[in-house]
Backbone:
C-alpha cells in the first residue's frame, strides 16, 4: 500500500513540529546545563566574597538570560522559521510506501528518497509526525491532516512502529 498526496505546510504544522523538536532536543539540555553551571559559578563566587561586597546582580541577570532564551526559542523561533524559510511555503508531493518516502519538490522530476528503515527516531504529537534520519538536523515533518484526509494515520503509524517501535516518542501536548 502507498499514499500519495500534495502538501503545502501551514504555519501550525511547522510551529507544532519545531516546538516539539525543541523540547526533545539536545539544544535545550545544553542550554539548561550551561545555565545551571553559570549560575552556580556566579553564586559560588558571590559566596566567596565578604557579605558587604556581594552583588547579586550578575547571577540574577545570567539566570534571566537562561530563562528568556529558551522561552523565546520555544515561542518565537518556530514562528520566525515559518516566516523566513521559504521552503515551508512550497508545495510538495509525497509518496509514502511501506519502505520508502519520496518527496518531490516543485518543478522537479526526481524525488528525494528516504528509506524508512533508516529512521533513527519518530516524534509524534496531535498535529504532526517528525521523522529523523540520523541527527536532529535531518528530519521530515509529516502533518497528520494530510494522512487523516486519506484515512491513513493508522496505516502510517502501524507501518512505522513495525519498522522499529523503540524509536517512537509520543507527546500528548498540543504544540
Residues:
Amino acid at each position: 500500500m502507498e499514499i500519495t498526496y500534495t502538501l503545502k505546510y501551514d504555519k501550525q504544522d511547522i510551529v507544532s513540529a519545531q516546538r516539539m523538536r525543541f523540547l526533545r532536543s539536545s539544544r535545550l539540555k545544553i542550554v539548561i546545563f550551561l545555565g545551571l553551571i553559570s549560575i552556580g559559578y556566579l553564586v559560588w563566587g558571590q559566596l566567596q566574597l565578604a557579605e558587604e561586597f556581594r552583588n547579586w546582580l550578575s547571577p540574577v541577570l545570567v539566570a534571566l538570560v537562561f530563562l528568556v532564551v529558551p522561552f523565546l526559542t520555544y515561542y518565537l523561533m518556530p514562528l520566525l522559521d515559518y516566516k523566513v524559510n521559504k521552503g515551508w511555503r512550497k508545495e510538495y508531493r509525497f509518496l509514502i510506501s511501506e519502505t520508502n518516502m519520496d518527496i518531490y519538490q516543485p518543478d522537479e522530476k526526481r524525488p528525494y528518497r528516504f528509506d524508512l528503515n533508516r529512521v533513527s527516531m519518530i516524534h509524534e504529537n496531535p498535529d504532526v509526525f517528525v521523522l529523523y534520519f540520523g541527527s536532529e538536523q535531518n528530519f521530515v515533518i509529516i502533518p497528520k491532516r494530510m494522512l487523516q484526509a486519506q484515512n491513513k494515520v493508522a496505516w502510517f503509524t502501524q507501518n512505522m512502529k513495525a519498522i522499529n517501535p523503540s524509536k517512537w516518542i509520543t507527546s500528548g501536548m498540543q504544540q
